[in-house]
């Protein structure tokens, strides 16, 4: 296939901030991109599975944003996430938000399982105008690993962490954002992730808060989030060799792992030199499409009934 190209230069391109797309999909009906299929915002079309049974993700007509992005029409259909007053994580008595795994259309999912080493997923989110952030909460991000071990690579899991990764996002107080990373536990990953500015923190028994505050989320507006993962060559974990290859732009015999994040088309976080996998059977699986308030204790809970909407879900396998 030839590299992809847009038919227009609208801000819709924020869904695909890198254009070297071999194969992709989008639920944005107004986006025309070579090698990218237009699909519906539905469970069957997007390969949704392992839905958190007591949570819903109804397809609705979302409210109008408080302002438009240029001449771009806002999404007309979206998943609605409902966070009732007092709700926190899905494991508590009063959960909120939504939660499932998304692998994309069947041909896209097969391409991931067949060993695609670089992929991008994106979506738009809008929080109601009077949204209250409290202490923080989770947002969707990419995940992967070896077979079923890729699932539940979060929530404080320590076992088999070398065989999975989970890169959900997180909002903190005042809408400050980060990547909440669960990755193979080794010194290379810890060093690289904790070096990300403006601040990164190792949470005991949980993941690493990567780059606390490189972006701030807004309310009442559609925000476009795109996340890219590039897998490393398994078994290549020599940190010094990796750093030399990066610094001198040497064409190494192996590939280093990367994680990259965009907000509204601007790159806000880019980490290289990561060990995304230690096993060749570890693959990019798709998105852990999960959102909730928390934390697990009541001081993280939503202070009132709140809603957020998710639309224009997209994915790409890169060159």
Q: Structural class of the helices, strands and pairings?
A: mainly beta
Q: Give me the CATH architecture, please.
A: Sandwich
CATH class: Mainly Beta
Number of helices: 4
Number of DSSP strand runs:
17
Oligomer: single chain
Mean model confidence by pLDDT: 89
* Helix and strand element order: EEHEEEEHEEEEHEEEHEEEE
- Biggest β-sheet description: 9 strands, mixed
Q: Poorly predicted ranges (pLDDT <50, ≥5 residues)?
A: 1-9, 237-253
Helix coverage percent: under 10%
**Residues in β-strands, percent:** 35-45%
Using only C-alpha atoms, the radius of gyration works out to 19 Å
Q: Examine the coordinates and then state which fold CATH places here, giving the name of the CATH topology.
A: Jelly Rolls
* Separation of the first and last Cα atoms: 10 Å
Q: How would you sum up the global shape?
A: globular
Summed up, the domain count is 1
Pfam families: Polysacc_lyase_14 (PF21294)
GO molecular function: lyase activity
Domain Polysaccharide lyase: 79-313
Keywords: Lyase
Describe the structure.
The chain is mainly beta and 319 residues long. It has a single domain (11-318), classed as Sandwich (Jelly Rolls). Helices cover 9% and strands 35% of the residues. It is built from four helices and 17 strands. The protein has helices at residues 43-46, 106-113, 187-194, 239-247; strands spanning 21-26, 36-38, 48-49, 59-60, 78-83, 98-102, 118-127, 136-146, 164-172, 177-181, 201-202, 208-210, 223-230, 257-263, 266-274, 282-293, 306-318. Strands 1, 2, 4, 5, 7, 13, 14, 15 and 17 form a nine-stranded mixed β-sheet that branches. Strands 3-6-16-8-9-10-12-11 form an eight-stranded antiparallel β-sheet. A hairpin with a 2-residue loop joins strand 14 and strand 15 (266-274). Mean pLDDT is 89; it is low at 1-9 and 237-253. It comes from Serpula lacrymans var. lacrymans (strain S7.3) (Dry rot fungus). This is Polysaccharide lyase family 14 protein. Residues 79-313 form the Polysaccharide lyase domain. Keywords: Lyase.
